[in-house]
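Researcher: I'd like a structural prediction for the single chain below. Treat it as a standalone chain; there are no partners to consider.
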Amino acid sequence: MTARGAAGRCPPTTWLGPLLLLACLLVSRSTTEEVSENCSHMIGNGHLQFLQQLIDSQMETSCQIAFEFVDQEQLNDPVCYLKKAFLLVQDIMEDTMRFKDNTPNANVIVQLQELSLRLRSCFTRDYEEQDKACVRTFYETPLQLLEKIKNVFNETKNLLKKDWNIFSKNCNNSFAKCSSQGRERQHKEPSDPQLPGFVFRLLVPSVVLVLLAVGGLLFYRRRRRSHREPQTVDSPMEQPEGSPLTQDEDRQVELPV
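Model: Treating it as a single chain, here is the predicted structure.
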């Protein structure tokens, strides 16, 4: 009786398992909806206005700075381009874009860095070994750099509004193509890309030295020629010993008185 009664009852853990599973599904669904809602509206117009203020406050200059960014000629896929650019923008704001502390521009950079940290949940991370794929060094003005960054945030905002999960796309194949193209370029162009600049710096002093040497040689020859001209003018006045004039003079001396 007791055994049958015990066997006929369901233990509490039997009901607890499905309840926990249902609760986890509800929580994960609500979390996914919350993430999708955040990704779709995380970048606001205010952030773009902050970036425009940074652009407007920059001094126009021809000075250029070096920074690493995505080579759009190698990476045509807009989603993969923004995935790569988003990570590089974080590094640029951390290492390159520096303003005096507690200034309006510095505060804008801090807000953009906080926004980038929140946006990480909207991007999937691809393989670490391809971090440098499709990337090259740019030499541009600070104004051009800020315009690139604003364009990245603006395009990211537009794509997230259309599909909050769009940046979960796997871009490893696109990045691998960039890596293969880079290796082909290295085989075709084994010389150092900085070699032309080095040759130019070496060639200019050499040309200057050659010009100085040629100029000095021409000056020396002209100076020497100017010294020879008076001697050639006086030379006709000097008669050689065997000339008829000297012989007549000798004959006159030998005549008897």
